[in-house]
Amino acid sequence: MTSPNFIPSTKPLPFELHPSSIQGLGAFAIRRIRKGTRIIEYLGERITQAEADVRYDDEAMARHHTFLFNLDKRTVLDAGTIHNEARYINHSCAPNCEALIDKGHIYIYALTTIEPGDELVYDYGYERTEDMGPDAEALYVCRCGAPNCRGTILAPEKKAPARKKPAGKAVSKSKSRSKTDAGAKKVAGKKSSADTRKSTKRTKSPSRKRAS
Ligand SMILES: [Zn+2]
Q1: From CA 143, how far away is CA 20, in angstroms rounded?
Q2: Would you call 156 helix, strand, or coil by DSSP?
Q3: Is the pLDDT of residue 204 over 60?
Q4: Between the N and C ends of the chain, which has fewer C-beta atoms within 10 Å?
Q5: How much distance in Å is there from the Cα of 145 to the middle of ligand 1?
Q6: pLDDT surpassing 60 at residue 192
């Protein structure tokens, strides 16, 4: 957090950063946060997909880091450089927050009412890709401790047929992992099932686009 690329929130935040049992630092509520509250914007450096591919190489990394967030087909937010406190919000399979895209920005919202002391978490739901085998599960192992922990930060396996979405466009042949753009995952109102885009990229997924 002492990095020159750390841009602290200018507004008082309803959480503080402390060591987390999930991983590294986590974000813990210091007051009650009501369901639906927009908590913080997820800041990152805006870069192209291609640049993200150059910067990050999953195979070369022993442990994944989760700083990329797909904003749209072309743009990725990289919180590995420019970032704010949102970067430290951990993954959980039992989330109390969600990440939504709203007009080109990503925000973390309270999915439930959060009590002081609770750790803020959202489901990264890394996109599964066709080339993934058991080793991927191992690389993206989840130890969130939730009773319903699925054991991996990868999104649950989808069983329904793929949605008709331009495949592979938002996510090119890349080895980096990033959070995926909202369209790739659940679109509001649709129980969709299907983000089977062709890609080699691990992408974190906002739940959906914010209905505007
Ligand atoms: Zn889990």
Answers
A1: 11
A2: coil
A3: yes
A4: C
A5: 6
A6: no
